[in-house]
Amino acid sequence: MKKAVIKSVSGGIFTGIGEEHEEVVLHSPGKIKKFGKLLVGDIVYYDESTENNTIIEVAERKNEFIRPKAANIDVFLIVQSIDEPRFDRYLIDKLTVYAFKEKTHPILLVTKADLNEKLAEELYNEYNSVGIKTFLGRIENNNYDEIFEYLSGKIVLLVGNSGVGKSTFLNNVHGYDVQRTNFISKKLGRGKHTTRQVEIFPIDDFYLIDTPGFSTLELETLDEGERLADYFPEFQKYKSECRFNTCTHINEPGCRVKEALKDGEICNLRYESYLRLFKELKERKEKW
């Protein structure tokens, strides 16, 4: 019995990556269907003595993402350009909440930083200060050694809008053209999709899952007992000091989070993302 990580799923054909980073085509028998559909990132065990490398066991997942479809993610690597297309703060904050909710660790790579060094530095300081590890990438003279060291031993999900530099980053990682990099549409202000399917690549001592570019992410409603504020790290040291245990940090009197906001201890723009996402989740729950 040998171990593999599902690399890609296409039309019922499963390609895995073995322990020596070799690719192997796998067959999923009917009994495996009880585990549900296999996803990129699934850890499986197969019988190499069979003609078609039959999967005989699927390891229990640590997490599962609906969009993009992937499993067992350790790090959520969010790539966002400083410009062309312009930085989308709300999408970033929404993605970090999504990552925290699914028990993964979000990190941020801000690309094309040389297009606006001042803003890039502000974002670097802001997100690092709330515990979201942030790196800067540039159009010229990129050096990703620090990121590679941070990702060592992990399964990493690479996400971000089209045109922000995901494929360019992936090409730099591999040293060859994994996905063809496209130009930005001047009319639309965003890139054309250059990645066609969710796929995983072994890179030194970590795995990187590339995903199709997307422009929206619908965060599902929170489970019973979950609170949106739990996924904003900068709120944590204040919320226990609120007058009410059920404080939403919006309109309640005696809210310590609002006091910290007023005192400049919490970023106004991050708080605006919180309000917008709170409203979005409330409306979604009411529809359900």
UniProtKB/TrEMBL annotation:
Concerning Pfam families, the annotation shows: RsgA_GTPase
Location in or out of the cell:
Cytoplasm
Broadest EC class assigned to this enzyme: hydrolase
- Which Gene Ontology terms describe the biological processes this protein takes part in? ribosomal small subunit biogenesis
Q: Which cofactors?
A: Zn(2+)
Instruction: Please list the GO terms describing molecular function.
Output: GTP binding; GTPase activity; metal ion binding; rRNA binding
Task: Supply the alphabetized keyword list.
Answer: Cytoplasm, GTP-binding, Hydrolase, Metal-binding, Nucleotide-binding, Ribosome biogenesis, RNA-binding, rRNA-binding, Zinc
Q: Which residues form the EngC GTPase domain?
A: 71-215
State a GO cellular component annotated for this protein. cytoplasm
Q: Which positions bind Zn(2+)? A: C242, C247, H249, C255
Indicate the segments forming the CP-type G domain, all copies: 62-217
Which residues of the sequence carry a binding annotation for GTP? T111, K112, A113, D114, G160, N161, S162, G163, V164, G165, K166, S167, T168
Complex formation: Monomer. Associates with 30S ribosomal subunit, binds 16S rRNA.
- Spell out the family assignment given in the record's similarity comment: Belongs to the TRAFAC class YlqF/YawG GTPase family. RsgA subfamily.
Instruction: Indicate what this protein is called per its UniProt record.
Output: Small ribosomal subunit biogenesis GTPase RsgA
Please give the organism: Ezakiella coagulans
